[in-house]
Amino acid sequence: MSTGKDAIPRPIRILVGHSVIGEEFKVGKKTLIAWEDEGAPIVRDERNVARAEAAELWAWYRGRNHQSA
Fold first, then answer.
1. Residue range 30-49: average pLDDT?
2. Cα–Cα distance between 48 and 10 in angstroms, integer?
3. Pick the residue with more confidence: 9 or 55?
4. Is 64 inside a domain boundary?
5. Do 39 and 69 contact (CB within 8 A), yes or no?
6. Contact by Cβ (8 Å): 52, 18
7. What is the 3-state secondary structure (H, E, C) of 10-67?
8. What is the pLDDT of residues 8-21, one digit of tens each?
């Protein structure tokens, strides 16, 4: 992965709601809530709706799986 001045910026994708986040990761709501408890970068908005930036959550997920291997 390229970093630095030649890196191509990617658009930020915000995943809104457990159903959308779960669909991205092929997991259910209970798993997502457990991930939140484990420190996943999932935040709640003023209406208590789960939100996550896709690349940030994927990075957390990969790091989490790498540590348990």
1. 96
2. 27
3. 55
4. yes
5. no
6. no
7. CCCCEEECHHHHHHHHCCCHHHHHHHHHHCCCEEECCCCCEEEEHHHHHHHHHHHHHH
8. 777 899 999 999 99
Residue 6 included in any domain:
no
The share of the chain scoring above pLDDT 90, in percent, equals 75
The residue type of 41 is P
Q: Is the pLDDT of residue 65 over 90?
A: no
Cβ count near 18 (within 10 Å): 20
Global pTM reads 0.78
Domain count, the chain: 1
CA distance 66 to 27: 18
Residue 8, judged by CB atoms within 10 A of its CB (0-12, 13-18, 19+), counts as: exposed
